[in-house]
Design a protein that fits this description.
The complex is a heterodimer.
Chain A: E1 3-5, E2 10-14, E3 19-21, E4 24-26, E5 32-38, E6 44-50, E7 56-58, E8 64-68, E9 73-78, E10 87-94, E11 104-106, E12 110-115
Parallel strand pairs in A: 2-12
Antiparallel strand pairs in A: 1-4, 3-9, 5-6, 5-10, 7-8, 8-9, 10-11, 10-12
Chain B: E1 5-7, E2 10-13, E3 19-24, E4 31-38, E5 42-50, E6 53-57, E7 64-68, E8 74-78, E9 87-94, E10 102-103, E11 107-111
Parallel strand pairs in B: 2-11
Antiparallel strand pairs in B: 1-3, 3-8, 4-5, 4-9, 5-6, 7-8, 9-10, 9-11
Classes of the chains: A mainly beta, B mainly beta.
């Protein structure tokens, strides 16, 4: 069975500072990895995904993530955050075919708090 | 706007009651997924339907049931409600199981 661990429930960061949100997963097979963002009172929106190929994945809003198979990690990074990045971030893993919506398992989320 | 519509946005009801949550997927999407988001459990997969048929089941209680209709909209029925059922219920849809999921804005259920 697959599982996802987001190591930090809350990450406070000053505006324009870099940020890294950590995600580790466990699975017995090859996986597909995702980061979703949830803004206040909104549904989840896909930030980026790793299906195969280059381990560095670029997403929307200047975010990127690096897949590290040996460390079973998929950490999310942004070099300079903005107030508008304040949101809940979810890491997810799927063993489903094609890396789609089937069999998505989510982490508990990391609340990113941007301080002015 | 993801294209997935959930109604109602908010629902307050008493313990022991039954409610129905509705989801209209994006046009052309055949798969519908239901998730429950609570503070203690996080985001939990409940159930998936594909083109009218149940395809996968997650941590869905026996008091809960769902269905997908011929026009592909889906309903999640929650009965004998308990205080612990208070949560945000999300619907997501995808073209097929191997394509990206798009999430609705959720229905916030409060059981009092």
């Amino acid at each position: 069975a697959q599982s996802v661990t987001q190591l930090d429930s809350q990450v406070p960061v000053f505006e324009e500072a870099p940020v890294e949100l950590r995600c580790n997963y466990s699975s017995s097979v090859s996986v597909y990895l995702f980061w979703y963002v949830q803004y206040p009172n909104q549904g989840l929106q896909l930030l980026l995904k790793y299906l195969s190929g280059s381990t560095l994945v670029k997403g929307i809003n200047g975010f990127e993530a690096e897949f590290n198979k040996s460390q079973t990690s998929f950490h999310l990074r942004k070099p300079s955050v903005h107030i508008s990045d304040t949101a809940e971030y979810f890491c997810a893993v799927s063993e489903g075919s094609g890396g789609g919506a089937d069999g998505l398992t989510f982490g508990k989320g990391t609340h990113l708090i941007i301080q002015p | 706007d993801s294209g997935v519509t959930q109604t109602p946005k908010h629902l307050i009801t008493a313990t022991g009651q039954r409610v129905t949550l509705r989801c209209s997927p994006r046009s052309g999407d055949l798969s519908v997924y239901w998730y429950q988001q609570s503070l203690d459990q996080g985001l939990q997969f409940l159930i998936q339907y594909y083109n009218g048929e149940e395809r996968a089941k997650g941590n869905i209680l026996e008091r809960f049931s769902a269905q997908q209709f011929p026009d592909l909209h889906s309903e999640l029925n929650l009965s004998s409600l308990e205080l612990g059922d208070s949560a945000l219920y999300f619907c997501a849809s995808s073209r097929r199981g191997d394509t990206e999921a798009f999430f609705g804005q959720g229905t916030r259920l409060t059981v009092v």
